[in-house]
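Lab notebook, design round three. We kept the backbone fixed and only want residue identities now. Task for the bench partner: fill in a sequence for the structure below.
Input structure tokens:
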């Protein structure tokens, strides 16, 4: 799914918001020796823990899997240049969300306000004494508190997890998915979505309300913490260390936010299942159907977090008889 396309739209509509420079630091070098050992043990036990580009072959079928980042970053340029001939020669490009699905999502937001807006209450009532802190966090990001008070908590928890310095990158909307789709369009290569347009957002909306409130309270911390977590995530992506990124962030979240270990574990379990594992499994039949009809190589590009793990797309394809080889990114 494109990186929170609804948030992109929201930032784009907020005139006069100040754009700051991000000053986060990569948290991995400062990990303790025991923490580093935990990271290495986790990586060793996780299938396909590294690599942003994999080639899957089964008989005459060839499928390239590209792990993407949904943010604009100048460091993407060399990878885009290397992947361009691959996209231009593909039978089809599969994405989490194409331009067509994005248009459907934006239209749905306009016709189904309950998707984003609380119907019978407000966050002022739900948060009680914590509301002033949320109101300030919204103001800091250029969002009128009166508008924010009516938003679904799952949506605001995503919004607040983004440092205010990220606004310019979000409005740019030039992540790897977008750039690859542009190449495909220019080359006349058909594109197709891996899932219905609202799948990812429905998964968020189905998170129990009490857990949504935990998520929103946890996002009310120091903006510097969010900047550090994002810097860690982005640096790990360009090192093609997507599994390490997720594990380090999960490990540090209870230390750096108001979440208890139990709350953090619960959020991790729910989001891992709904946003990654379930969607990964649902993508496999879509990929198989495309591969059965393709007359040449197929490229599938989606968030790098979907690649590795027992229920990652790569391991699921291995179970379908594909042989996987890491390729240059």
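Proposed sequence:
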């Amino acid at each position: 799914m494109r990186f929170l396309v609804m948030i992109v739209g929201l930032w784009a509509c907020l005139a006069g918001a100040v754009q700051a420079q991000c000053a986060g630091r990569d948290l991995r070098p400062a990990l303790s020796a025991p923490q580093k050992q935990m990271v290495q043990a986790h990586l060793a036990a996780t299938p396909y823990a590294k690599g942003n580009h994999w080639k899957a072959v089964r008989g005459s079928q060839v499928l390239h899997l590209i792990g993407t980042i949904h943010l604009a970053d100048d460091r993407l340029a060399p990878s885009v240049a290397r992947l361009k001939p691959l996209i231009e020669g593909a039978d089809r490009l599969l994405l989490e969300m194409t331009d067509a699905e994005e248009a459907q999502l934006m239209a749905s937001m306009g016709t189904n306000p309950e998707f984003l807006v609380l119907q019978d209450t407000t966050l002022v009532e739900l948060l009680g004494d914590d509301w002033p802190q949320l109101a300030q966090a919204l103001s800091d990001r250029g969002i009128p508190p009166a508008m924010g008070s009516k938003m679904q908590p799952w949506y605001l928890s995503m919004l607040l997890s983004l440092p205010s310095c990220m606004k310019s990158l979000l409005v740019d909307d030039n992540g790897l998915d977008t750039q690859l789709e542009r190449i495909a369009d220019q080359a006349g290569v058909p594109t197709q979505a891996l899932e219905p347009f609202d799948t990812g957002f429905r998964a968020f909306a189905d998170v129990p309300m009490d857990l949504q409130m935990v998520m929103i309270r946890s996002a009310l911390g120091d903006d510097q913490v969010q900047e550090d977590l994002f810097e860690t995530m982005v640096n790990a992506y360009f090192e093609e260390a997507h599994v390490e990124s997720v594990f380090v962030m999960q490990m540090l979240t209870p230390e750096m936010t108001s979440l208890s270990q139990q709350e953090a574990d619960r959020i991790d379990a729910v989001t891992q299942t709904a946003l990654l594992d379930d969607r990964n499994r649902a993508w496999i039949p879509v990929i198989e159907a495309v591969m059965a009809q393709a007359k040449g190589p197929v490229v599938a590009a989606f968030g790098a977090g979907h690649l590795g793990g027992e229920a990652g797309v790569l391991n699921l394809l291995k179970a379908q008889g594909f042989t996987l080889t890491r390729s240059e990114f």
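Keep this in mind before ordering anything: Residues 1-20 have pLDDT under 50 and may be disordered.
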